[in-house]
Description:
By secondary structure, this protein is mainly alpha-helical. It has helices spanning 3-34, 37-61, 64-79, 83-91, 97-118, 130-135, 138-147, 155-162, 165-176, 182-196, 203-208, 213-228.
Amino acid sequence: PSAEMITLMWSFIVSIYSIGGLLGSSSAGYLSVRFGRKKAMLFANIPALLGAALMGLSRLCGSFEMIIAGRLFSGVCGGKLAFLPVYAGEISPKKLRGFINVTSTVFLALGKTVARILGLRELLGSQSLWPMLMASCGFPALVQLVALPFFPESPPYLLMHIGDQEGCKKAIRQLWGEGQHQAEIDDIMKEKATMKNTKILSVLELVKEPAFRWQLYMIVILTATTQLCGINAV
């Protein structure tokens, strides 16, 4: 292929991840409520492993289309990362909740750093080992797929969405140990009562709501300028 076609294919391989992220994030809220935080996170590992397999086998099969498809599936998994801070925050004790929520950002940055190091030509960025580099994104997904079934479901989800008070208490004891946790359960019940009186806006209703107009403008401008500053190209 010509140099222009190679540039076009490479650009498409790079950008298709964001399209997958859009698809994944748009369904994250529905899946987390429909199936629960834990099951939704387990489902998110399926496209991650599928994407890793496609990219890892792409050279063996001589197919750049497999890289494109693998990047798309990896993006879908990346878009569903919204499950992680929600689940981590809901299963952590109140005094550690802020700290636990911050760790997701820290480990996201750590993952990018590890990827940059593994991508060096002296390691996995060589001409012979790059398929292993692209397939390495499936390793964290595989670890989570094996380990996550041993964790309980989110206690707030069990109580607020399922109405399973006994299951909520069991999950709390498993996470936080034996003891008096009635205060935490009462907090969840108060939050549930508050949610009943709160209207959940759709995207269209949010855009039309005058009270949120300036906040919406600010978020859109900040997000757009972040994309235009060149950080993704870097």
